[in-house]
Amino acid sequence: MKNDWWKECVVYQIYPQSFMDSNGDGIGDFNGIIQKLDYLKDLGVDVLWICPMYASPLIDNGYDISDYYSVNPIFGTNKDMESLIEETNKRNIKIILDLVVNHCSNQHEWFQKAIKNPKCEEADYFYFRTTEDDQEPNNWRSNFGGSVWSRLSDGRWYYHTFAKEQPDLNWECKKLREKIYKMINWWLEKGIAGFRIDAITFIKKDLSFSSRSMKDCERYPVENLTDYPGIGVFLDEMKERCFEKYNCMTVAEAPGVDNQAFERYAGKNGYFSMIFDFGWENMEDEKDKSSIDAIERWKRKIFKNVSNNSKIGWSAIFLENHDQSRCVNKFLEKENINFYSASALASIYFYLYGTPFVYQGQEIGMTNVEWKDINDMEDVRAKRTYQEAVEQGKDPQEMLAYFSELGRDNARTPMQWTSGKNGGFSESDPWIKCNDNYTVINVENQIKDTNSLYHYYKSLIQYHHKHTELLKKGLFKPVLEEYPGLIAYERSYGSQKLTVVVNFTNSQMKISKMTQKCVLCNYKNGETAQMQPYEARIYYRE
Ligand code: TEU
Ligand code: CA
Hints:
Elements: E1 11-14, H1 30-35, H2 37-43, E2 47-50, E3 54-55, E4 67-71, H3 78-90, E5 94-99, H4 109-116, E6 128-129, E7 140-141, E8 149-151, E9 157-159, H5 174-189, E10 194-197, E11 220-221, H6 231-246, E12 249-252, H7 262-266, E13 274-276, H8 292-312, E14 315-317, H9 327-331, H10 339-350, E15 355-359, H11 380-391, H12 396-406, H13 443-448, H14 453-466, H15 468-473, E16 475-478, E17 486-493, E18 496-503, E19 509-510, E20 517-521, E21 530-531, E22 536-541
Parallel strand pairs: 1-2, 1-15, 2-5, 5-10, 7-11, 10-12, 12-13, 13-14, 14-15
Antiparallel strand pairs: 3-4, 6-9, 8-9, 16-17, 17-18, 18-22, 19-21, 20-22
The chain binds 1-O-alpha-D-glucopyranosyl-D-fructose and calcium ion.
1-O-alpha-D-glucopyranosyl-D-fructose (TEU) binds at residues 60, 63, 100, 143, 162, 198-199, 223, 253, 255, 322-323.
């Protein structure tokens, strides 16, 4: 196997709760994934990233792990998981798992022991502090609202970057690190091909835990304290002790890693094979996303990041994941969402530079939900932040509107397979409600329709596989920059050239004639000088 095999892959992200339910309990499961492996094979993806499927009380949908060695029974047994690995490998598809080691669940036996006995070994696996004045040890705010400190009944405070049910692990403790490495290698021995590594830039703390000054907010956001000096010691060690030995693919969720730090993380000798490029994930600050100005700002952000990162490392490029709203809603006004604009978006990111990730349902253009009630949402972040804000006097309707647009549950509704009951996801009521539009947007319809988004994604993936060398090594260069609203770039390698030209506006646009051959277009005729609204063309020359 090649050293950098992941550079030739297209990854598909599965959120197991919402992918496919095989036994009618309303929750997706391993056998459900197995049932759909042929679908995924046909789509053409090479690697599946499966979001946490470990034992968990599911406060944060599995990102709160209570036992790293067993799977959550809602998904099936450890044996089912093994069949999943086997069936996937049979089809020449690889699996990467989520590695969540910044924190665990408060139900994990380590934390349970640490609560009971402040002197036990496990007490050193977490950050406990006591204070003289009964006040929180500092003013830091957790990612999910409230303080990063919660209190035990014996008066000790413990630290959590996320929910209070997710105590942070103390990476300073060597014994703990050894336990983590052992667990990682255990999974690698089982035949998985690597990991997506959760929130990893939070593992090194400022051990002074001193309060920080802040402007408008009540507490200092801990999300500003990522990539803290000294983190490299832990990350290098983990790489050496685990990842390197297996030549596995590692993709880190690394919030806070800017263009400067990118090389340390995802450069040639970086801690990981790649990190997610969060540099242009959203247009959330834009009032009018379809305005030329907004499009140009987004384009500059993409090009700036890719121009920088492609020279020094490897990225994971994506439009969606389980923490974000659907890409059609993130980048388009509602009235502009259609096949053309969705395929235009896909064309923009797919060949930029790095390994493309497709999130479940993205390939059929699944959309955000119109949430009418905060109680319909399941996400701990939405629920707690909402509550905190309302208690502080914010308008509940405004908060609901915020989460309706940007909430994580938008991506977590059941996969839409058919126009039948519950979108063909489950016989029973799903754990989170379906998006009503499954009657129109679903896999079954799109497989039948050869002009659908599904088929467009399939073609993008095929071209990716056809031009691996070019996409791995080819230079990146923005082109046709004189056309506002046009997003265009080329990748060149030797005499080969692949050019992506996308009119990302909802009006026609005249461009200069291209001399290369158009190999893929979301309209019928990709050769004229006149480009249609949201027309996307991929050109190729040998
Ligand atoms: O997300 C981490 C996360 O929420 C932050 O990186 C966030 O993007 C940043 O702080 C900006 O606010 C991961 C998982 O993807 C998510 O589903 C989990 O809830 C979270 O970790 C905790 O495990
Ligand atoms: Ca099930």
